[in-house]
Amino acid sequence: MANFAKPSAPRFSVEVYQNEFLPEGGRDVHAIVTVTSTGGAAATRAAATRGSAAVVIMVDCSGSMEYPPDKMRGAREATAAAIDTLRDGTAFAVIAGTHVAKEVYPGQGRLAVADAATRAQAKEALRSLSSGGGTAIGTWLRLADGLLRQSTATIRHGILLTDGRNEHEDPAVLRATLEACAGRFTCDARGVGTDWEVKEVTGIASALLGSADIVADPAHLTEDFTLMMENVMGKEVADVALRLWTPVGVEIQYVKQVAPTVQDLSDRRTEAGPRAGDYPTGSWGDESREYHVCVRVPAASVGQEMLAARATLLLPGAPGEPPATLAQGLVRAVWTDDLVASTAINAQVAHYTGQAELAQAIQQGLEARKMGDVGGATAKLGRAVQLASASGNADTAKLLAKVVDVVDAAAGTVRLKAKVADADEMTLETRSIQTVRVKKS
Question: Which H or E element spans position 200?
């Protein structure tokens, strides 16, 4: 684990944005908890000599990867580029995934240590990658987990590429594998082409606190893999937890990451003592994330106030040692008879509530469209257009415009397009959870 006594270590801060005022009898308190890590770039340079990262790249080598041939060729080139991006001292391995998982490099159940020689050997080994067989993603993840568990590295990460559905494995097996791997390593997942299942790929990334995306054109794989690996190399602190402590009588309604993506963490709570629970946030570099916390407090009279929750960012200590406190913020509740104060909606809370609704509207709209429910799809995607326009989410607005004809963005008036390319629909679904930051004055 990172030593936070060193000046090169990242520094964390927590800011809480909320309207703490409630009307008499009011109970629900909403807050946006902004967590920022700075100084990670310097820490990463210092970490280079410590070998603080371990990465396993899982490449789909099923038979469909040869149709068209540029998928397999693009996967080899992208993996080679990712290997070139590894900093010296990083532990790494490459897995070929079909209905079974095979070690491509270094083999014999171990990890290699990145340097000029091992990078060259790994890229040479990629020449053996060929397509054939089925798809059983759980086996790939289990092998990656076994390899990564050998490492004492701070950052343990997987990169997974697939072009098809998980057809040669029971869905329950993949779910069980994800549950077993959660908390042991993070994983970015990518779908190449348009024959894979969005919910499978995004589900893998969600369970393992990584990113998910589509690379419709294999020609763009190298750029995407390079950026992913650069991001991994920029991580320095892993296994950071957001602990929420609440007083007697206070109930946590939900905890969601809302930026840079929407991710519901509510069911990932781990009990951490009386009235306290930990929510995983994964690994960090130089970055900022935002979390929407909603708690229900006991009803109270005008003039009363209370601490509704305490948000603490924690880093696990060594075995037998308590976790280190990185930063802390407070969520308050104050009861008032001032109607203006109690009905005001905090700008950050309003913005991210809208972004979460935007993601849900897109997903529900696309599902309705697949089911042939024209009215439901039009209503949901129209609402999505309206929310994207109001929040300034230009990227999502552009993706929506490839699925619907926008008549009036402000009013949410749209018409479904008669024909939509599979890549456009899958891109919208995959990226629906990506949010924009609140516009701060």
Answer: helix 198-207
Phi and psi based region of residue 219 (left: phi greater than 0; alpha: psi -120 to 50; beta: remaining): alpha
- Quick: pLDDT tens for 166-214: 999 999 999 999 999 999 999 999 999 999 999 999 999 999 999 999 9
Nearest partner of 258 among 293, 228, 287, 309, judged by Cα: 293
Q: Give the rounded distance of the alpha carbon of 12 from its chain centre.
A: 19
Tokens for 283? 């690994």
Nearest-Å Rg of the Cα atoms of the chain is: 23
Complete DSSP assignment for 215-251: E-SGGGHHHHHHHHHHHHHT--EEEEEEEEE--TT-E
**3-state DSSP percent of the chain in helix, strand and coil, to 5:** 35, 30, 35
Instruction: In whole angstroms, give the CA distance from residue 277 to residue 252.
Output: 10
Report in angstroms the alpha-carbon separations of 139 from 71, 96, 181, 308, 371: 21, 11, 12, 44, 32
The residues, ordered by sequence, that sit 6+ positions from 409 with a Cβ below 8 Å of its Cβ are 385, 386, 388, 389, 397
Separation CA 281–CA 268 (nearest Å): 10
Burial 85-119 (b: 16+ CB within 10 A, else e): bbbebbbbbbbbbbeebbbbbbeeeebbbbeeebb
Distance of alpha carbon 214 from alpha carbon 202, whole angstroms? 10
Helix axes 347-370, 374-391, angle to 10 degrees: 150
Nearest to 205 by CA among 260, 247, 124, 273: 260
Could you give the CA distance from residue 157 to residue 185 in angstroms, rounded to a whole number?
Answer: 5
Helices (H) and strands (E) in the chain, counts: 12, 20
pTM, to two decimals = 0.93
Whether the Cβ atoms of residue 177 and residue 207 lie closer than 8 Å to each other? no
Query: pLDDT tens-digit profile of 32-52?
Result: 999 999 975 544 444 444 458
Closest CA to 30 of 258, 274, 235: 258
